[in-house]
Amino acid sequence: MPLHRITAGLLPALLAACAGLSAPAVPPALQPAGGERLLMTVAARGVQVYTCRSVDGAAPAWSLLAPEAELFDGQGRAIGSHGAGPHWLARDGSRLQGSVRARADAPTSQSIPWLLLATTASGPQGAFSGVTSVQRINTVGGTAPASECNAARAGTTARSPYSADYRLFTAR
Predict the structure, then answer these.
(1) Is there a contact between 64 and 48 (Cβ–Cβ < 8 Å)?
(2) What are phi and psi of 21, to 5 degrees?
(3) Mean pLDDT (10-residue bins), the chain, 172 residues
(4) Quick check: 120 and 105 in contact, CB under 8 A?
(5) What is the DSSP string of 99-155?
(6) At a CB cut-off of 8 Å and minimum separation 6, what does 79 contact?
(7) Could you tell me the CA-to-CA distances from 168 to 27, 69, 171 in Å, in that order?
(8) Contact 141, 110 (CB under 8 A)
(9) Do residues 127 and 96 touch, judged by C-beta distance below 8 A?
(10) 3-class DSSP state for residue 63?
(11) Domain range holding 82?
């Protein structure tokens, strides 16, 4: 049996097992505005792409280039993608562009930060229309590579696997 089928078959069991665990509380700084309500939560699985580069003559360092992830609904069905900008694109063509409003360290140092992002919608009306903010929580992985970034590696890229929950909010 192909690995992707085995992995997909285990997803519901893993989600059910995790349901009994208490998730860390979302920090107050990442709460959406009082006039917003939760529209949906989507799970993301993919990679954070980093490039080794020097900025303004400083020593080379790993720098986030872009996320590349698939988005899934609560039943595990693929509903869109997440990429550079950052942006979220639903399969129906509706799209969000985000800008960071607040950030907080993830509960573990091996995971990318949690974020609150303001969004603007574009494209046709659809699943992501009307979304005013996105909260990235429950991150796992995605941090910059532990390998050295130096002049000899400048221009190289690395992909760091990650998962996260994106909570999409709209005006009440």
Answers:
(1) yes
(2) -85, 145
(3) 45 43 84 95 98 92 97 97 98 97 97 98 94 98 96 95 98 92
(4) no
(5) EEEEEE--SSTTBPPEEEEEEEEESSSSTTTTEEEEEEEEEEEBPPPSS---GGGTT
(6) 42, 71, 72, 73, 90, 91, 127
(7) 16, 16, 11
(8) yes
(9) no
(10) strand
(11) 3-171
AA identity, residue 149: C
The residue type found at 15 is L
- pLDDT for position 21: 54
- Please tell me the total number of residues recorded for the chain in this structure: 172
Total domains, the chain: 1
Give pLDDT, residue 56: 87
Instruction: Give the model's pLDDT for residue 3.
Output: 43
d(C-alpha 63, C-alpha 53), whole Å = 7
State how far the alpha carbon of 89 is from the alpha carbons of 125, 133, 135, in Å: 12, 14, 16
**Radius of gyration of the chain from its Cα atoms, rounded to whole angstroms:** 17
Distance CA 122, CA 126 (A): 10
- Give residue 22's pLDDT: 64
Which pLDDT belongs to residue 55? 86
